[in-house]
Write a structure and sequence with these properties.
Blueprint (H helix, E strand, L loop, with lengths): L12 H11 L5 H8 L7
Length: about 45
């Protein structure tokens, strides 16, 4: 998930995680967290 520097983002962490899982259901929590720029615990 790419973020633009200084841009607005209206997706919640929950939505970002669901999109990451939808994109690749076999991905690890660690990779989801990194892609969403959140901690593993939050993911």
């Amino acid at each position: 998930m790419d973020r633009q520097a200084g841009g607005w983002d209206f997706l919640t962490n929950h939505a970002r995680v669901l999109l990451a899982i939808a994109h690749d259901p076999t991905t690890r929590i660690r990779d989801i967290a990194a892609a969403c720029h959140i901690t593993e615990r939050t993911a």
